[in-house]
Design goal:
- By secondary structure, this protein is an alpha/beta fold.
- Helix content is about 35%, strand content about 25%.
- It is built from 7 helices and 15 strands.
- Strand 6 and strand 7 form a beta hairpin.
- The two termini are about 30 Å apart.
- The mean pLDDT is about 90.
Length: about 240
């Protein structure tokens, strides 16, 4: 197994901005990112959080190397255009949310080079465009893009929930595209879980073989999901076998 870690750091960014007296606005779940905020985002993600994870991996016997999406032009990005609905109308308008980006391409050469020497890449979701502009990326989006670029066997999202749940709060162990569409329409899959399952489907489209949403708070969560018959979370496939 050759693991690759893509991490976020929203709570840590919020805490640092709060200490600096900076108010962070969100629109449709996306952090409005001006240049000052981007400096903090990069400092926290590529500095503090990334190096904490690298240190922990090394402390427990692994060999990890920290990267941001700027290293080796790993995560190429462009400015994200956000459409929001106008109140009281059926129209939408484009909103400028600053230095928030979306992934346009992934150059996995630096990852492959590290894997050849048995290092674990730990990637912070910072993107860069051809002119050198830095962008704040959604970690789930970045992870799906990296997994697809590498044609990974598995993409595993570690969350603070048991997985995808039914209307009664029970775990749904396996889902496919058709079932996900029905559950979203019925309001069973809601909130932040909607983008996660959609990123899983995007990764499958990109060539990833299996995707999973699991509870990262459980000890040995990834091992239990991968190496037990029933797993502990939700496995998402393109289409379930009849």
């Amino acid at each position: 197994i050759h693991p690759i870690v893509v991490h976020g750091g929203g709570p840590q960014i919020d805490a640092m901005l709060g200490q600096m007296g900076v108010v962070s606005e969100r629109i449709d779940g996306l952090r409005v990112t001006d240049e000052r905020t981007m400096d903090v985002v990069e400092m926290v993600l590529a500095g503090r959080v990334n190096k904490e994870i690298v240190s922990l991996v090394c402390h427990h016997g692994g060999r990890a190397v920290g990267l941001s999406g700027k290293d080796g032009f790993l995560l190429q990005a462009r400015k994200k255009k956000l459409k929001v609905a106008r109140a009281g109308t059926d129209e939408s308008e484009l909103i400028d949310i600053g230095l928030v980006g979306e992934v346009t391409a992934v150059d996995p050469d630096v990852i492959r080079a590290l894997e050849e020497w048995d290092f674990i890449p730990v990637i912070s979701p910072i993107g860069v465009d051809a002119e050198g502009h830095t962008y704040n990326l959604n970690a789930d989006t970045a992870a799906a893009a990296v997994a697809a670029a590498l044609k990974a066997q598995k993409l595993v999202y570690l969350t603070d929930a048991a997985g995808v749940l039914d209307k009664d709060g029970g775990l749904l162990p396996t889902l496919d595209r058709e079932k996900i569409a029905k559950l979203i329409k019925r309001g069973v899959i809601t909130g932040g879980m909607i983008p996660k399952v959609n990123y899983c489907l995007q990764a499958l489209e990109g060539g990833v073989r299996q995707t999973h949403v699991i509870d990262g708070r459980l000890e040995h969560a990834i091992l239990l999901e991968m190496f037990t018959e029933s797993g502990i979370g939700t496995e998402i496939l393109e289409k379930l076998e009849k």
